[in-house]
Amino acid sequence: MTRRRVVTGSVLLALLVGAVVWAVWPESKAYTAEERMITVRSGPGGDEPVDLDTTFYLPKEAGPGRKVPAVLLAHGFGGTKRTVRTDAEDLAGIGYAVLTFTARGFGRSGGQIHLDHPDYEVRDAQRLLDWLAARPEIRTDAAGDPRVGVVGGSYGGGLALLLAAQDKRVDAIVPMITWNDLARAFLPESTGGQPVNGVLKKGWAGLFFGSGSAGPGGIGGFGNLGTPEPPGVDPGAAGGGAGAPPSPAPTGSPAPGVRPPSPAPPASPGATAPPGRVVPPGNRGVDPQCGRFAREVCEAYLQIGATGRGTEEAVALLRRSSPAGVLDRIKAPTLLIQGAADTLFPLAEADANARGIAANGTPVRVAWFTGGHDGGSGPDSDRDRLKYLTAQWLGHYVKGEGPEPDRSFTWSRIAGFNALDRGLVATGYSTADYPGLAGRATQGVIVGGQPQSIANPPAGNPAAISSLPMAQGLSSLLDGIAGDLAGQHARFDSQPLDRPVDVVGAPTVTIRAASPTGEAVLFVKLYDVDPQGGSTLSSGLIAPVRLTGLPTDIAQARPITVTLPAIVQRVEAGNRLRVVVATADQGFATPSEPAVYTVGLGDGNTATVALPTVPGDPIATPGVLWRWVLFGLLVAIAVGLALVLLVVRRRHRRTDTSVTPEYADTPLVVRNLRKEYADGFVAVSHVDFTVDRGQVVGLLGPNGAGKTTTLRVLMGLTQPSAGEIYVFGRRLVPGSPVLSRIGALVEGPGFLPHLSGLENLRSYWRATGRSLEDAHFEEALEIAGLGESVHRKIKTYSHGMKQRLAIAQAMLGLPELLVLDEPTDGLDPPQIAEMRRVLKRYATGGRAVLVSSHLLAEVEQTCTHAVVVNKGAIVASGPVAELVGESPSVHLDVSDVEAAQRVLERLAGVRTTATEGGTGLVVDIDGRQRSEVVAELVHAGIAVDRVMPRRRLEDAFLALVGESSRGSGDR
Fold first, then answer.
1. Where in the sequence does UniProt note compositional bias of the Pro residues kind (predicted)?
2. Is 102 in contact with 188 (CB distance < 8 Å)?
3. What is the sign, positive or negative, of the torsion defined by CA atoms of 353, 357, 359, 365?
4. How far apart are CA 459 and CA 657, in angstroms?
């Protein structure tokens, strides 16, 4: 099963990588590129000539005997044919003839900018289709009908839609980050109002007008979405559109209307250059006020820009250049790609296009990505996904290869940073079909707050900065620097979310407003606020509204539903939502008259923010598949190890099904234990000892003697090389059920730091599978002596506190054998003294204790028996009193120390030394009987209160191990 998953994951990875490479990786020098000025005739009568600067990319294998399909590739506003050069090379590398061109009014091309007017830019593109149909290398469906797809971003995307509606020869289109209704895009109104009452996007409008009047600086492209060319540079004038000298023209007669590039196209009739201005060759003779814009377009902008309000005429002009009115005429299969980081043409524009085209049965697929006019082309995973989708779409509908693409909806969101290059990483998702901006389901989050008064500043200054056109992520840094201004916005917050929400679509919220003038322009924003107070406005997207007929009193205001811009964002659990209603924004035109508005929520002091969600499946990427392959390998390794362990356990259990009768009542028996490591080091060579009921046995030895290794083998943490261990007559192996009768503290305590001491004990006990009644928590906590600290989190504990809790954990369930490794480590003297009493009490009622310690004085006072290990072997074992043995000196507590010294000094060979405090003597009796020494003192009238042998366990220990106590560490 695991092997099959690994193989499947590897195959999927290979297929995906192969598909992406096939789709986007052109062969080196697999095409030629020729530059031409093509004269086309357009205009309302179809007879006005204009020169278009073009580059034609042709696969080397193409020719009259091997015709290839074509792609007409359009650039973004303000760009030129060079803006899309890389994309043209990619498409040419996978077998398409690609014609790129600089649109009229830009670069070296002649004519004026009419904003994708059906009679001008769209008719120009139709004449380019004629040119392609006349080329002998281009596959045709009929005479004059080339097999062609149209691809473009932003301005070029609008052209693709309008061209497909106007010319049925187009076989497929891929419009990206483009518009549906140009009037609504530049004059949005988020309560459903018409563009004539919309709020002007003055930032974007000014950038558009400047791009058209001052020269190149493209807005939008294919692979370089939203990446402009450097302002003030005329790429078209430089020649070499493919980055190399122009290829010679194909042999044979040139196509009609084609001529070599000219240094500069003729100036527009009647136009003059502004005084003192250097004009690029293609811009010579521009209007001093309107640049290369057509007069009607220029006048519409000047009028709207001056008033900040739309007019019926201006709206009609913009809608003439909008796909919205001709979607029912589009029959070419359409792949719509739109960016979530786009304050110019937000996701709602693609949504309107998708619904309008699909309503007539035309195949439509929608893909959202993390970039856009404000976010660029997104991370690598996004770019690869979009290129693959484009190649797949064109491959089927233009090349006629591959199965029909499905209509699934794909989207992505930023998931974090790449650990290697710190670049952004996007995670993609898909679902069977496009759900629209309302999503599949809606989750409601309640925000609350009292109505608030907010001021509209005179002339809209100062104003908040929610986004900067084409800022490529800079907008995310604005909050707290140039974000919402005090006194000009109202805030309404939710409670922290109890679970995360993945928003995919356009949220909605209801508000109320009152104005002394009866009107108000407001900007509604939705923030994601983390527990530390940091707020995020997704891609700087805001909802402008222009409200009329407002009451002066908020109590009389009616609820108004605001549809916020569609977003793709994960709101984490614990974060709050914040609805902000502001009066002025740098990107929009606002009323110049100062006023104070009152704003509130739609349901009084609360409102529900409706968050659309779309369940989806993660899209496999090379990185994701590699993670699954690695995961599969890890699973395979884990399963293999588990099988080995299972076999070993079964083998042990097969040989350990009985109880050895002679050891059945003995807590611990160790016989001939040996542990040798793979490098040849022998940690334990020969160890034998027994722990009987009622005993407290001390395991002693210098560093490196083998104490810890012995305990590790005892607890089943490592396998012995030889020998056997019996616990109550059952042979001990890793995982043996008899281990449940042992409580242990070996190699220090280990707890979960985010839990309290009591929670750690309970979690440990639950893991054993036994009932809480059997745990004896009260006795364990009494032993630990932590008091109320047992309710504190472990991360606040000192080492000594952790040690005491670990001992209590070992005693849970009152096991019959307790094994402790350095139990007094980290304890203070009173706690050590209490530990002595605890261990002595514990070894009653048939229980036993094995203690490993380096504190010999503690072992002497605590243990009944001791086992001394040196160099991996036992050098002594038995009762502590026997190990200490007879002492050559004796300690005496007497009533008069000085008198006792005078009496004993008369005895030959006897030497005395007074102890600290002056109440006792240490007497070297020189082989005499202790009774003789005591008798001499009593006869002299000196009272003897206590007689103790002077030799200590430490003396015996040093005599047994010698200098080996200077070992280099246990193993």
1. 245-268
2. no
3. negative
4. 92
Residue 564 and residue 579: Cα distance in Å, rounded? 10
List the CATH number of the domain containing 578.
Answer: 2.60.120.260
Do residues 474 and 612 share a domain?
A: yes
Sign of the dihedral defined by the CA atoms of residues 58, 63, 69, 70, in that order? positive
- Pair 101, 127 in one domain: yes
- CA separation for the pair 94, 34 (Å, rounded): 18
Top-confidence range, 195-199, 856-860, 906-910: 195-199
Is the separation of the CB atoms in 149 and 394 below 8 Å? yes
> Do both 376 and 452 map to the same domain?
no
| 412 or 963, greater pLDDT | 412
CB count in 10 Å sphere of residue 902: 12
Q: Is residue 363 included in any domain, yes or no? A: yes
Question: Three-class SS string for 140-208?
Answer: EEECCEECEEEEEECHHHHHHHHHHHHCCCEEEEEEECCCCCHHHHHCCCCCCCCHHHCCCCHHHHHHH
Mean pLDDT, rounded, for 652-673: 77
What percent of the chain shows pLDDT beyond 90? 44
d(CA 848, CA 951): 27
Mark whether 417 and 474 lie in a shared domain.
Answer: no
Q: Which of 618, 639, 669 is at the close of a domain? A: 618
**Residue 297 included in any domain:** no
- HSE value, Cβ hemisphere, 13 Å, CA-based, for 21: 8
Res 422: pLDDT:
54
- The residue-averaged pLDDT of 141-162 equals 97
CA dist 396 and 407 (Å) reads 13
* Closest to 503 (Cα-Cα) out of 465, 536, 480, 471: 536
* pLDDT of 891 above 60: yes
Burial of 939 (0-12, 13-18, 19+ CB in 10 A): exposed
Give residue 788's pLDDT: 82
- Poorest-pLDDT segment among 45-54, 618-627, 704-713: 618-627
pLDDT grade, residue 773 (50/70/90)?
Answer: confident
Distance CA 69, CA 172 (A): 11
Tokens standing for residue 826: 């980290």
Q: How many domains does the chain have?
A: 4
Tokens of 962: 């010698």
Q: What is the per-residue DSSP string for 204-235? A: HHHHHHHHHHH----B--STTTT-PPPTT--G
Paired with 74 in beta bridges are 152
Report residue 638 as tokens: 């884990």
pLDDT digits (tens, 9 = 90+) for 6-27: 433 444 444 444 444 444 444 4
Distance, CA of 355 to CA of 327 (rounded, Å):
9
Least confident residue range of 319-328, 401-410, 847-856: 847-856
- Same structural domain for residues 366 and 465? no
Buried b (16+ CB within 10 A) or exposed e, 663-689: beebbbbbeebbbeeeeeebbbbebeb
C-alpha 684/C-alpha 720 separation (Å) is: 9
Find the domain containing 900 and state its range. Answer: 886-950
Residue type (1 letter), 689: F
**Cβ atoms of residues 318 and 309 within 8 Å:** no
β-pair partners for 83:
none
To the question of pTM greater than 0.90 for the whole model, the response is: no
**Pair of tokens at residue 535:** 């707020």
Residue 226 has pLDDT above 80, yes or no: no
pLDDT for 128: 98
Higher pLDDT among residues 200 and 735, named by residue: 200
Q: What does DSSP assign to residue 103?
A: P
Give the per-residue pLDDT at 372: 92
Q: What is the pLDDT of residue 529?
A: 94
**Alpha carbon 880 to chain centroid distance?**
61
